[in-house]
Amino acid sequence: MSDETPLRSISLFDGLTDAELAAVASSCTIRTFEKQAQILGEQEATTDVFFILSGTVRSTSYTAAGREVIYNETEAGEIFGEFSAVDGLPRSSSVVAMTDCRVARMTREKFLKMLEGNGKIAVRLVELLVTKIRSMSERVFEVSALAVRERVRRELLRLAKDGEEFRNGIVIRPAPTHYEIAARIGSHREAVTREFNRLEAEGIVEVRRRQLRIVDIKRLQEGEE
């Protein structure tokens, strides 16, 4: 990869000089993936790290019974695959392209060499990893200690952060399916559907076609207290 410009969008490289970014770019190769393509497989013995230049990917696992668990969705400007790049162990989840994606790929050897040679990148990586660990800890607590209704409410509040303002509420589009929400909060579709029906009856949310409207964000937030 000879042009460092696309890497300017990657948060890990915030604050790098043109020369530093050019050095990073020289260690990367560009790959494209079509929507729904599997990029990584769980327990796969690969260790490259990926920087998302465009698109969105999803990290998931499946239980022995075939139930999907969604960990997170990672968007342009972010990275994935860094766990295996750091510890050299097999992949902890599968990664699938949710849209057409363009990524920069770097081998583990070059990634570790980059961290050893640039303290700014190393510190930024630690910050990003801490953010992910905090998010994981929060979700473990929710699954372990909260009822489905509260888990649904918290997930809606997380989704609302990236939604569009609409009157007194937020519009989320495309609306996640009940199955997707269940996979994110460690529940099942039927339980999520019951909670959505209750929230709609309370006038807190509305589902219209491919849109999820949080009609009263304040009441949703109050329900979390």
Task: Annotate the secondary structure layout.
Elements: H1 18-25, E1 29-33, E2 38-40, E3 49-54, E4 56-62, E5 68-75, E6 79-80, H2 82-87, E7 94-97, E8 101-106, H3 108-117, H4 119-145, H5 148-160, E9 164-166, E10 169-172, H6 178-185, H7 189-201, E11 205-208, E12 211-214, H8 217-222
Antiparallel strand pairs: 1-8, 2-7, 3-6, 3-8, 4-5, 4-7, 9-10, 10-12, 11-12
Helix pairs in contact: 3-4, 5-6, 6-7
How is this structure best described in words?
By secondary structure, this protein is α+β, with helices and mostly antiparallel strands. Helices cover about 40% and strands about 25% of the residues. It is built from 8 helices and 12 strands. The strands form 3 sheets. It has a 4-stranded antiparallel β-sheet with strand order 1-8-3-6. A 4-stranded antiparallel β-sheet has the order 2-7-4-5. Helix 3 packs across helix 4, helix 5 packs across helix 6 and helix 6 crosses helix 7. The longest helix has 27 residues. The protein is elongated. It starts with 17 loop residues before the first helix and ends with a helix. GO terms for molecular function: DNA binding; DNA-binding transcription factor activity. It comes from Reyranella soli. This is Cyclic nucleotide-binding protein. It holds the Pfam family HTH_Crp_2.
Which sheet architecture does the biggest sheet show? Answer: 4 strands, antiparallel
Helix fraction by DSSP (H/I, runs of at least 4): 40-55%
Low-confidence stretches: none
Reported CATH architecture of the largest domain: Sandwich
Total of DSSP H or I helical runs spanning 4+ residues: 8
Instruction: Just give the CATH class of the largest domain.
Output: Mainly Beta
> Would you tell me which CATH topology of the largest domain applies?
Jelly Rolls
Order of helices and strands: HEEEEEEHEEHHHEEHHEEH
Mean pLDDT: 93
The computed structural class is alpha+beta
Alpha-carbon Rg, integer: 19 Å
Measured distance between first and last alpha carbons = 49 Å
Overall number of structural domains: 2
Strand line-up across the major sheet: 1-8-3-6
